[in-house]
Amino acid sequence: MLFHRAADLVRSLVEARDARELGRIQRRLQSADLLIVDELGFVPFDRTGGELLFHLLAERYEKRSVLLTSNLAFAEWVKVFAGDEKLTTALLDRLAHHATVIATKGKSYRMRKRTTDEKPSQTNPLTLPKPGRRS
Predict the structure, then answer these.
(1) What is each CA distance from 35 to 13, 17, 104, in whole angstroms?
(2) Closest CA to 49 of 88, 26, 81
(3) What pLDDT digit, counting tens, does each position of 62-104 carry?
(4) pTM
(5) What is the DSSP string of 31-46?
(6) Residue of 72, 79, 81, 102 with fewest CB within 10 Å of its CB?
(7) Which residues, 6+ apart, have CB-to-CB distance to 14 below 8 Å?
(8) Interatomic CA distance for residues 50 and 80, integer angstroms
């Protein structure tokens, strides 16, 4: 199993390509039984990065498992892949073919956890104290 944030993974792929080591990193990524790509959509990719990620995921299609997390609806993914509708559609086609899609709504796990752990006397850790007052 391998875990990567999407932006870090794409940056690694681009750097490996520039260093002429793309084959080595692709073999390592292809050999993992499960590749987890987290936060797809937080940072959009340029065309090269999007194409490299597409080729990685397309190569894994029907061979190895992929788990993707994103805060975007599928219709918004084209923004992540530099506006390339054909590439985005082709990727979604492969990803959705055997996929189980889990959509969540409501407060994030972190926000719910913070709310349940917080005691009434605690101050909000996201709020800075007012000048001249100690917390």
Answers:
(1) 14, 20, 21
(2) 81
(3) 999 999 999 999 999 999 999 999 999 999 999 999 999 998 8
(4) 0.79
(5) H-SEEEEEEETSS-B-
(6) 102
(7) 48, 49, 52
(8) 8
